[in-house]
Design a protein that fits this description.
Layout: H1 24-36, E1 40-43, H2 48-53, E2 65-66, H3 73-86, E3 93-99, H4 101-105, H5 108-117, E4 122-127, H6 162-167, E5 173-177, H7 182-193, E6 199-204, H8 208-211, H9 218-227, E7 234-237, E8 241-244, H10 253-257, H11 268-303
Parallel strand pairs: 1-2, 1-3, 3-4, 4-6, 5-6
Antiparallel strand pairs: 5-7, 7-8
Length: 304
């Protein structure tokens, strides 16, 4: 039975860091680190989180931090894991706290290689859907039609589906999570801690400045993303067992878009296109989750 750890102990992320007011990145990492506990080492590549963590040798985290190059996070984490194992420190967790630029794009080759080897690490992608600390340029995580510093008229291609790509590696655990649905996030971190092999959790991080979200609207935006199906919460175990954690879309995507400046004055036809894309992805997830449940039920009936 997985115990949900409450974030009421001494924080692992100290105050006085360099995050923007209302930053969901800092809030998410605070809860992730609380769930992970003090026997943890973090690899943090260049990203918003690297700025929040602070320049070496200073750190706002109460755990050891290693800041590698942008493309090498998964390799650095793999090396740390093997060094700790050689010292007999098997109970120390190695995690990565990387942005989408260092995960979907520049660090993807390294992450894919680590997943192919099933390295024993937990990889957290803090997905703010762009290169936010260098001016809010688009990444392959940027959604369709979103305006960024490098797509001022709106991005013309869809967001890369990292969760499905990593699930295709048949690693033990891939999931999405959001601090806007905190019990689900904490449960997934605790679950990942109890597993071995490569575990990858992508957290949606609404960016106040890059998305044009009010300082006090980050959590609302995160919740609307889930409730509209723009960022579904689900898990994939061993590449084929799907569980949909938030099982109903209760609002149109227009409600989610309205909170963000990057979608301001978006054409109604484009909103309809985006809604259709989300509906199609949602239907696919429902089918996969239903198929997984049917296989599990069949397996149980065979055993009994």
């Amino acid at each position: 039975m997985i115990q949900i750890q409450q974030a009421n102990q001494e924080p692992m992320l100290c105050s006085g860091h360099a995050a923007c007011p209302g930053c969901i990145d800092a809030l998410s990492v605070r809860h992730v680190l609380t769930a992970m506990g003090p026997k943890t080492m973090a690899v943090i590549p260049p990203s918003c989180m690297a700025i929040i963590a602070g320049p070496q040798p200073y750190s706002s985290l109460r755990i050891p931090v290693y800041q590698p190059t942008l493309e090498s996070s998964a390799a650095a984490a793999s090396g740390l894991r093997r060094a700790l194992d050689a010292q007999g420190k098997h109970d120390t967790q190695v995690i990565v706290l990387a942005g989408d630029g260092g995960t979907y794009d520049i660090g993807f080759q390294c992450l894919s290689s680590a997943a192919e080897r099933n390295e024993n690490i937990i990889y957290f992608c803090l997905d703010n859907e762009g290169y936010m600390n260098t001016g809010a340029q688009k990444s392959s995580s940027t959604p369709h039609f979103a305006r960024t510093g490098s797509t001022p008229a709106g991005k013309t291609s869809r967001k890369k589906n990292l969760t499905e790509i990593m699930a295709a590696h048949r690693v033990p655990y891939v999931a999405t999570a959001s601090v806007g649905h905190l019990p689900d996030l904490l449960r997934k971190v605790e679950k990942a801690k109890q597993m071995q092999g490569t575990r990858i959790i992508t957290l949606l991080i609404p960016c106040m400045d890059g998305w044009g979200v009010a300082d006090d609207a980050g959590l609302q935006t995160a919740r609307y993303a889930v409730e509209s199906g723009a960022f579904p919460l689900y898990e994939v175990e061993d590449g084929h067992r799907y569980t949909l954690n938030h099982t109903a879309k209760i609002r149109p995507v227009a409600d989610y878009l309205a909170l963000q400046r990057r979608y301001r004055n978006m054409a109604s036809a484009d909103i309809e296109t985006l809604q259709a894309e989300i509906d199609d992805g949602w239907a696919t997830l429902q089918e996969r989750a239903a198929a997984s449940s049917a296989r599990a039920a069949k397996s149980m009936s065979t055993l009994t």
